[in-house]
Amino acid sequence: MSTARKLAIGATPAPTRRLAPAPSASPRTAPAPDALPTSKIAPRETSLLASDLQGSSFQTLRETLVAAVRAGKQSEVEAVLHHILGLAETARWSRDVRNVVTLRGQVRRLARRAAQTPTEHTALLASVKIQFDVVDQSLDAARTAMLTQHDADVDADTSRLLRDRMLDVMTEGQHRPRDIAQALGVDSTQISRALRALQQDELILRVERPTGDSDARAHWYALAEPRKVEGTSAP
After folding, report:
1. I need a surface site. Which of 45, 74, 174, 230 has the fewest CB within 10 A?
2. In whole angstroms, what is the distance from residue 33 CA to residue 149 CA?
């Protein structure tokens, strides 16, 4: 038997390398109605590419996206979209309507530039358009919700201020709604709504009209508990 064959027989076989099993996919959960879409980027690709885009200007994002769409580089396209989704989510959580409006304008300009990119990869370009449409709709919904909440807050502040002014006027005695409206220079409809609210809070009550008053149709109101309104306790 040759020396080479003896060495081959006596040699320890090399260990077989086994590939680690692929991680099982986690079950998908349905996003909230107003949630932004989840980007279809592999975790490894996202961590590498997104880090390169942190702090990038929209000019850099535009150049990166246009070049990626033209070359059909889906991973780079997805990285830009993922970064924009993050910016949109941050703007929504900021509760600052100016941030949302500014970002929406930048995103819409970026979407128009991407749509004008000459490329053979039409399917990729169509996917980019869909993603931008979703982001735009989400930012528009956030803007509307913030403006609605702002209007509600302003209305609430105005109502509280009006009620406080009405209570100040009524410390002088019984009043009709039109008297209060004239004293404050406010529309009678607002006074009527505020009076109902004050009655519900038990701060005022309807009283009999004063002796000698000839207007039988008028309602008169007075403070229910003057000391409660003034913030002092009864002796």
Report:
1. 230
2. 19
